[in-house]
Amino acid sequence: MRDRIIRSAGAQIGKFGLRRFTIDDIASDLGISKKTVYKYFESKRQIIAELFDRHIENEKNCTLEALKTDGGWLDKLRAVIHCYGQEKLSPGLLEELQLYFPREWEKTQAIRTFKREKVIEVLMQGVEAGEIKKDVHLGILGLILDNTINALFDYKILNRLDLTVNQMMDGVRSIILYGILKQNPNSGECKNEI
């Protein structure tokens, strides 16, 4: 029953947000009494905390499994990037989380830092393999990837650009791995300087 309550809470949060969903919504959805919900959870806040704990654990496990992917560093990077979209939270929920549920917000930031560190470890493998230039600042690249990947799963951005997630990921991969310059900027052939 505990798992069913958590799943229902996730659905109710998706509909109403973190603050507006109620225990009544969960009870009605599951066809049980509020008393039954309170048998498993002391409060709505406890339900939210467990929901986010599970979310964070899933994100972490997905990332750790991705690092075990067969192949080279690029295969591992692709697998880790795929984990970013597993249980994406809407910008509205993230804002609500940050403002009203600071503990859970801190957990989401901690998992984001964890993932960025793992991405940097994978990129370091690319440097060690001689496939990424040694002068690339991996911290900056990790930050760029983290923020870009999070933007990939914003349906408003995808709709505005008229792209699928896969098309967007291919474009990001191409830009990050191969760059944007047609010519060597030091050769004097690039006319549009920044």
Automatic annotation (TrEMBL):
Q: Which GO terms describe its molecular function?
A: DNA binding
Alphabetically list the UniProt keywords.
DNA-binding
Q: Does the keyword DNA-binding apply?
A: yes
Pfam families the UniProt entry points to: TetR_N (PF00440)
Tell me the Gene Ontology biological-process terms attached to this UniProt entry.
regulation of DNA-templated transcription
HTH tetR-type domain: which residues?
A: 1-59
Kindly give the Gene3D superfamilies that the UniProt entry links to this protein.
Answer: Homeodomain-like (1.10.10.60), Tetracycline Repressor, domain 2 (1.10.357.10)
Locate the DNA-binding region by residue range.
22-41
The UniProt entry, under InterPro entries, shows:
Homeodomain-like_sf, HTH-type_TetR-like_transc_reg, HTH_TetR, Tet_transcr_reg_TetR-rel_C_sf
What protein am I looking at?
Transcriptional regulator
Organism this protein belongs to: Desulfocucumis palustris
